[in-house]
Amino acid sequence: MNNLSDILAKLSEISPLVWLIIAVLLVGSLFGVGVLIIKPKSSYKKASSRLHTKQLVYGGMCIAIAFVLSYIRLYKMPYGGSITLASMFPIILYAIIFGPIPGIIAGVAYGFLQLIQDAWVLNWAQLLFDYPLAYGCLGLAGMAPRFIKSIQVRLCLAIPIAILGRGLMHFISGVVFFADYAPEGMNPIYYSFIYNALYIVPEAIITLILALVLVSTPIYSAMRKAAIN
């Protein structure tokens, strides 16, 4: 009960503007689902147009879910970064199903939304590294080889690829833009690596565990079937 109360308390901190953005994403996605259901496949001139619609629909849903999960923070770092309830997984799952390019686009969009949530911005270059570029790297999960039939094995490859990509962007940002935050006498490279690893590694572990549990349920099978058919 306490854990549920904590989650509800964290969600209550979300501003009306954020809820509005989430609502727009979800309503737009539901509208797209309606279009896909009402119009038969034969009504589309090209199969690619239907796939494009599905990418938009599921992309909006995954971004909205990821954004909500990002507010359920288990630990918050002092200068940006936090351990959340697997908020990266919806974007990673989207990239696995639709491929790296749509995944990167969804990740970039999600990264810009993250600017609403306690953003640390020193200049435009740091903003790019820590937000659109870092979260865009989550789409690299789609690079996990499709010939691997086991989704569990693909996740064990996809999640580290995505996490390493995001972590690399934060690491570069830390070395270049946050060197002054390093303790006196400490190399900024070591400082950035340790600082980012303190939240990226636990987040990766949580994401992998929950992902392996989810894909073992009928929820994943139903979502994947609806997405590719």
Short description:
With 229 residues, the chain is mainly alpha-helical. 69% of the residues lie in helices and 3% in strands. The protein has a single domain (2-228), classed as Arp2/3 complex 21 kDa subunit ARPC3, CATH 1.10.1760.20.
Helix coverage percent: 55-70%
For the largest sheet, list the strands in their spatial order. Answer: 1-2
Largest sheet: 2 strands, antiparallel
CATH class: Mainly Alpha
State the order of secondary-structure elements, H for helix, E for strand.
Answer: HHHEEHHHHHH
Radius of gyration: 18 Å
Q: What would the principal axes of the Cα set say about the shape?
A: globular
CATH hierarchy: architecture: Orthogonal Bundle
How many extended strands? 2
Strand proportion? under 5%
What fold name goes in the CATH topology slot? Arp2/3 complex 21 kDa subunit ARPC3
Determine the number of helices (DSSP H or I, runs of at least 4 residues): 9
Q: What's the structural blueprint in terms of helices and strands?
A:
Layout lengths: L1 H11 L3 H23 L8 H23 L3 E4 L5 E3 L4 H10 L1 H14 L10 H13 L14 H27 L10 H27 L3 H11 L1
Antiparallel strand pairs: 1-2
Helix pairs in contact: 2-3, 3-4, 3-5, 4-5, 5-6, 6-7, 7-8
